[in-house]
């Protein structure tokens, strides 16, 4: 491009050729004029034809060095190579709507003090399985409940001014070498440095990921609850009740989930413990009544009923992860001081 584009769309990709083609085709089908954005795909040393798939769509295809290094490093590499003043991050399994890129531009034009903005999943995830539908729809529900100013960031479909990105140091690719909470950490640092973030629900993307129960539980424990609690401890922000952080009621349901698990074990010796189990479980269900009603409206009562055990597992796994993080936090090494992003990308152009 002879003239610097307004946006640089950056897609980190790892062994994602089938969904990547759909993702990139949707980006190119955006109603934003093509000369107003460039498209960079960063292949995180995939061993399939991800790079070839990207080459049919992208302006530039980069490859991380000595990888795979995770999406944080891939996004950083794309950001350093970018020419746009606004960086747009889209996950390789997300299909943005035709109006998402133009909507990002509109938000920045309407709010001169805005440094970052992110959107939501749509209400029609591609996989029809219960876990996939639940996982994506609950993500949408939480984001819709917290539209407006935010203290965190979502890199699945989000944008940030390049100047703010560089000033904050980008994603922490040292700490997060696989998909975890690198975008949450980045959002916290943006906020701490005085940059404004907004959640805009009109910026939508369809998620193509197929979730299994095992993958959900592993992700919630290993890649969400444990690292997030470590981060909150470091920031001394466990009591933070800002947008997209756990409210006091959510913390109560997490405790009650543990009570249910323990009382069920104790009920082997005394059936009196079953009363505590029933009461605790009933409080969790009642506390999630608005969410369950929303699920019922979208997918019907049977779907909402089947979601209840998944919600219980969410609280139980989250509580176990938080407890583990608290117990082991002091044994971790002191977090290294971040360095500024290098002037040249730590990636190779494979085109």
Descriptive keywords:
Spore Coat Polysaccharide Biosynthesis Protein SpsA, Chain A; alpha/beta; 351 residues; ten-stranded mixed beta sheet
Stretches with pLDDT under 50, minimum 5 residues: none
> How many whole angstroms does the radius of gyration measure?
21 Å
Q: Strand-residue fraction?
A: 15-25%
CATH A-level architecture of the largest domain? Alpha-Beta Complex
So what's the CATH class of the largest domain? Alpha Beta
Mean pLDDT: 90
Query: Outline, from the CA principal axes?
Result: globular
CATH topology type of the largest domain? Spore Coat Polysaccharide Biosynthesis Protein SpsA, Chain A
**Secondary-structure content class:** alpha/beta
N- to C-terminal distance? 16 Å
How many alpha or pi helices?
Answer: 12
Number of individual domains = 2
**Using DSSP, what is the number of strands?**
10
């Amino acid at each position: 491009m002879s003239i610097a584009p307004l946006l640089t769309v950056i897609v980190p990709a790892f062994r994602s050729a089938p969904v990547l083609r759909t993702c990139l085709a949707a980006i190119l089908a955006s109603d934003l004029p093509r000369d107003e954005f460039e498209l960079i795909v960063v292949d995180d040393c995939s061993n399939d034809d991800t790079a070839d798939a990207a080459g049919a769509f992208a302006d530039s295809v980069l490859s991380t060095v000595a990888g795979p290094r995770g999406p944080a490093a891939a996004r950083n590499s794309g950001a350093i190579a970018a020419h746009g003043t606004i960086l747009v991050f889209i996950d390789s399994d997300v299909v943005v709507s035709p109006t998402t890129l133009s909507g990002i531009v509109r938000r920045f034009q309407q709010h001169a003090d805005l440094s970052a903005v992110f959107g939501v999943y749509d209400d029609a995830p591609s996989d029809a399985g219960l876990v996939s539908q639940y996982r994506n729809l609950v993500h949408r529900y939480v984001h819709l409940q917290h539209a407006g100013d935010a203290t965190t960031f979502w890199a699945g479909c989000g944008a940030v001014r390049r100047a703010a990105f560089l000033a904050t140091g980008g994603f922490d690719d040292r700490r997060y070498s696989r998909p975890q909470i690198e975008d949450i950490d980045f959002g916290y640092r943006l906020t701490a440095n005085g940059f404004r973030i907004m959640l805009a629900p009109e910026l939508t993307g369809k998620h193509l990921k197929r979730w299994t129960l095992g993958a959900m539980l592993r992700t919630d424990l290993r890649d969400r609850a444990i690292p997030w609690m470590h981060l909150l401890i470091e920031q001394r922000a466990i009591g933070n009740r800002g947008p997209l952080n756990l409210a006091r009621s959510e913390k109560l349901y997490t405790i009650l989930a543990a009570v249910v698990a323990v009382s069920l074990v104790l009920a082997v010796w005394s059936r009196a413990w079953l009363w505590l189990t029933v009461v605790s479980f009933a409080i969790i269900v009642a506390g999630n009544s608005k969410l369950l009603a929303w699920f019922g409206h979208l997918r019907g009562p049977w779907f909402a009923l089947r979601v209840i055990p998944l919600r219980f597992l969410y609280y139980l796994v989250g509580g176990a992860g938080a407890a583990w993080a608290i117990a082991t936090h002091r044994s971790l090494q002191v977090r290294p001081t971040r360095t500024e992003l290098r002037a040249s990308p730590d990636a190779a152009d494979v085109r």
